[in-house]
Amino acid sequence: MDASEEDLDIKLQKVSADLIADFDKSLGPFLRKQDGAGRSAVRSRVRSRETERLISSLLDPFQELPQLLDPHLPIWLPALSDAYLEHLLTRRPSPSSNTTSISGRSNDLLMPLPRAICKLLYTFCKIRGEKVVVRFLSNEARYLEVLLSALEDAERAAESKSGSNPNPDPLGGGGGLDDISHGQAVAVRVGAWTWEERYVVLLWLSHLMLAPFDLATISSLEEEEVVAGEEEAEKEEKRKRVGGLTLPAGLPSITTRILPLAVKYLASPGKERDASKALLVRVAMRRDMQEMGVLDALVRWALAALRPQDGAERTPYHYIGVLSFLAGALTTSENTSDMNSYLTIIFHAVHGIAVEGGKAGGMMASALARKTMIKVIRAIAVLLLRRPQDMEGMEMVETAIGFLLENLADNDTPVRFAASKALSVITLKLDEDMALQVVEAVLESLNRNVLRVESPGEAATPKKDLSMVDPLEWHGLMLTLSHLLYRRSPPAENLADIVQALLMGLSFERRSTSGSSTGGNVRDAACFGIWALARRYTTAELLAVPTATLTADSSSGVSILQIIATSLVAAACLDPSGNIRRGSSAALQELIGRHPDRVEKGIWVVQTVDYHAVARRSRALHDVALGATKLSGQYGEAILEALLGWRGVGDVDAASRRAAGASYGMITAELASTEFNHIQRLTRSVSLVLDHIKSLESRQVEERHGLFFSFAAVLDALPGVATIKDGALDQLIQLSMDALLAILQDCNSKTYRKPELVAEAASRLIISSFPVLQAATSASTNLLPGRSLRTKTGDELAQLVNVVGARTEKLGTFIALVRANLQKWLVWPDLEIVSAASEAAVVLMIFCSDAERDEAIRGWAEAARERQSSKTRTTSGHFSALAAVYPMASTMALEEDETLICDAITERWRNDVWTDTHACILQSLTGSELLKQNTDVFFDLVAQGLDDYTTTAQGDVGSHVRLQAIRATKSLWEMLDEDPGTKVPLVGGLFLRILRLAAEKLDRVRAAAQAALAVVLKPAQAAALRRSTFSSKGYFVFLLDLLQQDWLHPAVSEVKADAERWMDALMAGFVSSADTGNEELVIATRAALCEFCERSAASTDAVCTALARNLKAWQGTDRVLVPTLEVIAFLFHVGIFAQCSGVNYKSLCLQVQKACYKTGNVRKIEACIRVYGAIAELGRDAGRGDGDDACKKQEGVREARARLGALMFHPWPRVKSTVVDELWALHYDDPAAQALKSVDWARAEKAKMKTVVGALGLA
């Protein structure tokens, strides 16, 4: 429901300085190095990993705020371009150089410098835009042929690699780098270019085409002489080598070299298409090229290329490229007459393709092709409107407008964007009458299929029903209106209908058949339109707009600015989309800032409905909406009305509906506090909710769920405003009681589509009805909200029971309905229903008679005691209900009844082995008085829950039990300060279990144990533990240091007396994270373990001896045993375990042998082999020492070698292969070990294995 706590742009602003400094520092050494003479020279190759770091880690984050790079672009981009040019000029190999090859490994680790530079330049283009980046590239004409020659050489290399294919892959496909000769490449590296290189060089060439002198003066004489010496047939063939393009005679050599390359990559599916389009347009629109007929040739080629040819199979990218060239040429000639002679033929060709539809084949199936067609038609229409108008031109303009209006309903968003923008641009060029007709056509389309329906409770105020309109068409129409307003095309006299359409768009919503929202685009476009309206029109013009059609009360005198501001406040507070909420906030700020003193509390509204404040929806629903209501009641009324619609109680998200209901109650309470009669305001809100409930269909379960929560929130507000008991309060009580009875009767008699939603909401409604029941049964005005009952003690609840007066008939009916419904709701497994129904049970107990109360508790206890037959019903609600009513039962019932609840729960725990049942029991005990007053009874349940590692086909289902047991333990430990003397045994019995769980591999269990562990630490250390990440190295070091530091609560200090038991428990959980956790977790835990052991010999001994003891203690439990073996092997390999002086290696081998004996767990056997190999490795140094330690170590080595020799005869091939690997690591320098090579030991004969074992001394 909410956006992230901290936005990415805010994070980027904080770290941007570090990222920029890092890039600035790294760029110089990345590009250049010092040669032998101390001079700076460009590198030939760079590390691929460093290139990726510069791109992904330092540059890519700036896509959120690209302008932060602007001050540094004048330094970085010239440095990159200069290094690229220097590499081309100074590193050019001679044609006679030998063929070089680059190995695949080297190719992975290194890349040529030009390729890395082009990747960086493309990244800058992606972040900041190619128009910004290209300005910093060198514009010296002397580099034109250098770049062009490099591109041509790369093309020849690609053709050579592909077998001289005349039509090579436009993406520059080819083989490896080692098959192309050194003389075929311009740079040090060989082979074809990547698409980034082609894109950057083509873009650079397009920039150099802005040279202010003729291309004939730039072309080299050598090329001209070569061309002049060619035969006429060869020259003609060269002109026609690009399909369909005939080049005029006498062109400069640069032109004849550029055009084939640009045309080739115009059909590319990658970014090269954009660069080649820009290059082709620049060449065609040059004055010297136009005079030579290049523009005419290219236009005629483009028109021919748009027509499908028999036998020629063309991709959609071919047509997209051709259309983009035409659009670019037309746009570039906007202020000239260069393209005037081609307007008619281009228009009819492109429009004809669009009209033909199916005949155009794949072209019209591409959204990008349709978008480019719209750009072409827009450019033609604009050029036609700039010249003197004639009949043919106006017909084409009208046809273009009709075509664009049709495309406003296109299925693809980019096409609708392009059509709406094109319409606004064309409309701006039209005369006033025709422009008004376009606006009227858009408004008329918006009113199509709009129905009027009567709203609940307000028969005189019909609402507009938009359920029949097309959301895609509305998006296009709303975008068009917004663009028209941005260009101030509509006259101020016609703004009334436009504003009405924008306000409808601001609250527009449609859902697809799958339930997803399809109206967000429309609302986003409406925000843009309102922003443009506020920006482009003066205050006087907007105040003159009539408001009769926008308000129910035409005599209210509210200005159009206030109406728009109120709608924006409601949208900013309630819209489900964060973009719309922020867009509404931005539009509101523009409206109030441009038209000051016209909106009530305008400045304060802008400060309250802040752009960042509305990012999180829960905050917008509660804090922002309440703040706006406090500024003015009209904002609160608008929000209340919207909350009863799709943005509140009708939201698809259940959590959002709950938040909307709570917001409805808060805003109602705030509005009531500003009125003379508070109760009447509450009564109006209740009546409005009830009218909506009555108008619901049975299938509208989500709306019913939200409305029940809204009703409950209003009742929660009653204690705060009910100061005296008068007729208004009696009227509200009567209305509420009748509604409650009707709702509960309806829930009892009907079955809804999603009964769990109705059960949850109705339970919350019962809880919130407590002040109404209080007022109905007593004369006191000291009413309490229902949610306060959960914090009441048994004595306080007993007092509430005692003040209940005589039961009325309605109250008796209410009690009966509540009891009947709770019987059904308490068996649901959903946590929301369980929580709400258990609290509703407390309300029931307060207003029951003693006999009814006793009967209900005994019935729930009996239901909790019996195991249900259905796996989907765990009676979890009965556990929670018993825990909730226990304070009252223990205060008011007899002593034998007090034990009834405890006995029922403990008996169910013993008889029911389902983990779901155990988790529900522990969840109901967490934080309850039942657990606090009966700790000795439930202590074993909590301890067993902490040790539950039940695994089924679903996985580690016991983790659910462990998680709830941790939370129950935490709730117990939070009472340590109340009576620490009596809680020491409690802490001692559970602490080591929590310590083990705080180090285990499951993230959610580890996080919960971290929170529980922090409760029994001193304040400073508890804060440090909570700040650390539960998967970090520092967190695990903290756990390891806990034994040696004085960080524990005094009540826990005695647990440290048995240090071995402490370390055994910690290592039992630690090894699971160090072996079977995710990769990052394994790295962090092993690093923490090594750091701890390297501090002192005592630390090493503590860890290693604990692991050795756990091998014996956890025999038969592979969950701990296998990770322990793996960690022991790891500590041996890093040289830590060998330093331990407290481990008997022979005994360790025997424990490993016992773990390996008759097991079918291959992973366990492999871990045992690695431990044997690590112990056997000690034999290299075993003879250097003296005394008992050396003898014991030698015994362990002999035992380990013997076990490795025995495992060579294991029947499983995988085990044999693992043993051979270990033996090779032990004896790689032994001549006898050469027998291990070149043998398939999985199939080797037994005699051969005996020979090798004997030769290596393993027998």
TrEMBL record:
Domain of life the protein comes from: Eukaryota
Residues in Tubulin-folding cofactor D ARM repeats domain copies: 389-603
InterPro entries per the UniProt record, alphabetical: ARM-like (IPR011989), ARM-type_fold (IPR016024), ARM_TBCD_2nd (IPR058033), HEAT_type_2 (IPR021133), TBCD (IPR033162), TBCD_C (IPR022577)
HEAT repeats: 400-437
Annotated TM spans: none
Stretches assigned to the Tubulin-folding cofactor D C-terminal domain: 992-1164
Pfam families noted in UniProt: ARM_TBCD, ARM_TBCD_2nd, TFCD_C
Keywords: Chaperone
GO MF annotations, alphabetized: beta-tubulin binding; GTPase activator activity
Gene Ontology biological process terms, A to Z: microtubule cytoskeleton organization; post-chaperonin tubulin folding pathway; tubulin complex assembly
Keyword Ion transport annotated: no
PANTHER family, per database record: BETA-TUBULIN COFACTOR D, TUBULIN-SPECIFIC CHAPERONE D
Protein name as annotated: Tubulin-specific chaperone D
Organism per entry: Parathielavia appendiculata
Lineage: Eukaryota, Fungi, Dikarya, Ascomycota, Pezizomycotina
